[in-house]
Amino acid sequence: MTGFERHVTFSAWAFLAPALLLIGVFFFLPVLAALLLSFTDFDIYALGDLDRLRFIGLDNYRQLLQSSLFWTALGNTFYFVIVGGPLSVAVSLGAALLVNARLIRFPGLFRTAFFLPVVTTLVAVAVVWRYLYHPRYGLLNYGLSLLGVEPIDWLGDPDWAMPAMILMAVWKNFGFNMIIFIAGLQNIPTQLYEAARIDGADAWAQFRHITLPLLGPTFLFVALMTMIGYFQVFAEPYVMTQGGPANRTLSIVLLMYEEGFRWWNMGYASAAAFVLFVLILAGTMLQLKLRRRESL
Amino acid sequence: MNPRSFLPAVLLYSLLILGLLLALTPLWWMIVASLMPPGEANSVPPRLWPSTVTFEHYAALFTRLDLARYLLNSTLLASAVTVISLLINSMAGYAFAKFRFRGRDRLFQGLLAALVIPAQVAMLPLFLLLKQLGLINTYGGVIIPGMASIFGIFLIRQYLLAIPDSLLDAARMDGAGEFRIYWSLVLPLCRPILVTLAIFTFMGAWNDFMWPLIVLTDSSLYTLPVALANLLGEHVQDTELMMAGSVLTVLPIMLLFVVLQKYYIAGIMLGGMKG
User: Fold this and answer.
1) CB neighbours of B47 closer than 8 A, spacing ≥ 6?
2) Which of A116, A136, A197, B234 has a 20 to 30 Å separation from B29 between CA atoms?
3) What pLDDT does residue A296 have?
4) CB contact, 8 Å: A90 with chain B?
5) What angle do CA A222, A224, A227 make, to 5 degrees?
6) d(Cα B179, Cα B176) in Å, to the nearest integer?
7) In a domain, A121, yes or no
8) Residue A55: beta bridge partners?
9) Are A117 and B250 in contact (CB under 8 A)?
10) Is there a domain that residue A101 lies in?
11) Which residues of chain A are within 8 Å of residue B5 when distances are taken between CB atoms?
12) pLDDT of A153-208, one tens digit each?
C-alpha cells in the first residue's frame, strides 16, 4: 500500500466510524441479541435477575405455533398486507396517472393535496378516523346514509374492523407511492406513445403495452416498500382498536409489543419478531423472483 | 380546448376533484370539529361547520393538559435527531461515495441488504441495552437509534456520486485536510440533499410513535404522538378536545412540508429511482 492509499483508507474509515459504530451497537448487535433472546425464557424475573435466564432452544417458536392468538395475529397481518398492499399500490398508480395526464392543469396543486395525508402523524389521524368511523356521529356513516346504506359499526364489528383499518392506511399512504409512480411515468419517452398512436393503439393498449412494462422497476420498488411497511402495522390498531374487536385487528407487531413490553415475555416476543422478519424476507425474495421470471 | 378532448377532460377533472375531497375531508373535519363548542361534534346529523367558533379546547390543551411541554419535547427531540444524524450520515455517505478502499462495495451492499430487517426486531434487546446504560426514560434513549441511518447514508452517497472528483482533488492539492474538505467543500455541495434528508428525518422523528412509547415512561417527557394516544385513554368522549390535540400534532409538520415540499419530493424521487 502506498502512503497515499493508506491515507485514503484511514480517512475513509475515520469518516465511517461514527455511523458504523452507532449502527453496529444499536442495530446489528440488538438484532443478533434478539435471535439469541428468542432461544431463552427471558421474562419479568430475568429482567430483575439475569441468573433466572434459561436457554430453552426452540420452545418459544414451538409455543408460538401452538398459540391460537399468534395464528390470529398472523392471519390479520396477512389480511392487512395482501388486501391493503395491492389496494394501496393500485390507488397510488391511479392517482399518478390522473395527476400526470396531459390534459390536467395545476398538477402541482393536486399532487400536494394528495400528498398531505402522508406527512400527517399516524397517531393523530388514527384519532381522527376513529371519529370518522363513529357509528352514530361519524361522517362516513352519515355519507353512506345519504346513499341509503344502513349504519355500520366500523371499528366494533369484527368483520368490518380490518377493512376500516385498511381504508385508513390506503388514505394515509397512497400519496407517497403516487410520487414515485409519477417519477416513473415521466421517465417514459413520449415518442413511444406518439408512435403507438400512429399505429392506432387506443388508450388502454398504450397503458397495457407501454406504460405498465416500462414502469416495471418502479412497480417492483413500490410493491416491495409497501409490503415491508404493511407487515409492520402497529400504531393503527394500537390507537383505534387495541387489537379488537375479538382480536380481529391484532397484528404481529402489536402482539410482540404486548408480550414484550407489557408482560415482559421478551424471549417469546423476540421469537415473534423473528417470525415477522422471516416473513418479510420471504415476501421480498418471492417478489424479486416473480419479477425476474416475468422479465425473462 | 378542442371538442375531442373535452369529454376526457371532464372525466379526469371529476375523478381528481373526487380524490381531492376524499383526501382532504378527514383533515378538514378534524379542524372544523376542533373549533366546535363541547358536545357539538357528537350531533346527528354531523355538523359540517361549528355553530360558534371557539378556541376553548386549544386553551384547555395548553392550560390544563400541558400541551406546550409535549410540543417542546417533540420539537427538541426531532431537531436533535435531525442535526446529529445529518452530520453522521453525511460523513459516512461521503466516505462511501468518494474514497476508494478495500471492502467498500461489500460493506455498502451489506448495509443496504440490512434494510429488509424490520426495526422492531432490534427493539427488545435495544431496550435492555439502554436500560443497562441508564438511558430508558431519557431523551437520549429516544434519540440514539435514529442517530445514524442506512437510508440517510444511501441518499447522501447517491447524491455525491454525481459530483466530480476533480473538485475534491483540487482542494487536496492545495493541502486542505480531509476534515476541512468535508466541512467546507462537501457539506455546502450537499446542501440540497441535506435539506431533503433533514425534512425526512425531522418528519420521521416527529411522527414516530412506537419507540418513544416504549422508552418514555415519565409523562413529562412524552412526545406529541405518545401524549395524544395517552390523552385518548382519558378523554375519549371529548371529541372536540381530541380533534384540537390532533390538529396541534399534525399542523406543524404539514406546514413544514408545504413550505419545503420541493426538496421533499425531490428526495423521494432520488430514493425511488436508484432503489
Assistant:
1) B32, B36, B40, B41
2) B234
3) 55
4) no
5) 105
6) 8
7) yes
8) A40
9) no
10) yes
11) 103
12) 999 999 999 999 999 999 999 999 999 999 899 888 888 888 988 888 888 888 88
Tell me whether residue A2 is in a domain.
no
Domain with A270, as residue range(s), is 58-295
Closest-CA residue of B relative to A269 is B124
Residue segments in chain B with a per-residue pLDDT below the cut of 70 = 1-4, 271-275
State the residue range of the domain holding B231: 55-274
Chain A: residue whose CA lies nearest to B257: A119
Q: Hey, is the C-beta of B56 within 8 angstroms of any chain A C-beta? A: no
Q: Is residue A38 helix, strand or coil?
A: coil
Question: Does A171 contact chain B (CB < 8 Å)?
Answer: yes
Q: Supply A213's cell numbers.
A: 412494462
Q: Measured between alpha carbons, how far is B77 from A213 in angstroms, rounded to an integer?
A: 44
pLDDT-above-90 percentage for chain A: 75
- DSSP 3-state of A232: coil
CATH number at residue B127: 1.10.3720.10
**Which H or E run contains B214?**
helix B210-215
> Any alpha helices (H) in A120-242, and if so which ranges?
122-132, 139-146, 158-186, 190-198, 203-206, 212-214, 216-231, 235-240
> Is A14 inside a domain boundary?
no
Residue A8 CA to residue B169 CA, distance in Å, equals 12
Give mean pLDDT, residues A75-82. 98
Longest dimension (CA), chain B: 76
Q: Which residues pair with A40 in a beta bridge?
A: A55
Q: Which of residues 205-224 of B touch A (CB under 8 A)?
A: 206-207, 209-210, 214, 224
- Is A58 an 8 Å CB contact of chain B? no
Q: Any CB–CB contact under 8 A between A34 and chain B?
A: yes
Q: What is the pLDDT of residues A196-253, one digit of tens each?
A: 888 888 888 888 889 988 898 889 989 999 999 999 999 999 999 999 899 999 999 9
pLDDT tens track for B83-123: 999 999 999 999 999 999 999 999 999 999 999 999 999 99
Helix axes B224-234, B239-274, angle to 10 degrees: 150
Tally of domains within chain A: 1
Does B95 reach chain A within 8 Å, measured CB to CB? yes
From the centroid of its chain, how far is CA A54? Answer: 34
The 10s digit of each residue's pLDDT in A115-167 is 999 999 999 999 999 999 999 999 999 999 999 999 999 999 999 999 999 99
Residue B267 is assigned to a structural domain of this protein: yes
Do A104 and B12 make contact, defined as CB atoms within 8 angstroms?
Answer: yes
Partner residue facing B16 (CB), from A29, A104, A142 = A104
CATH number for position A143:
1.10.3720.10
Cell of B241: 378536545
* Total domains in the fold of chain B: 1
Q: Which residue of B has its CA nearest to A27?
A: B122
Three-state secondary-structure class, residue B118? coil
Closest CA to B168 of A15, A3, A21: A15
Question: Measured between CB atoms, does B156 come within 8 Å of chain A?
Answer: no
Residue contact B42–A137, C-beta within 8 A: yes
What ipTM was reported for this prediction?
0.91
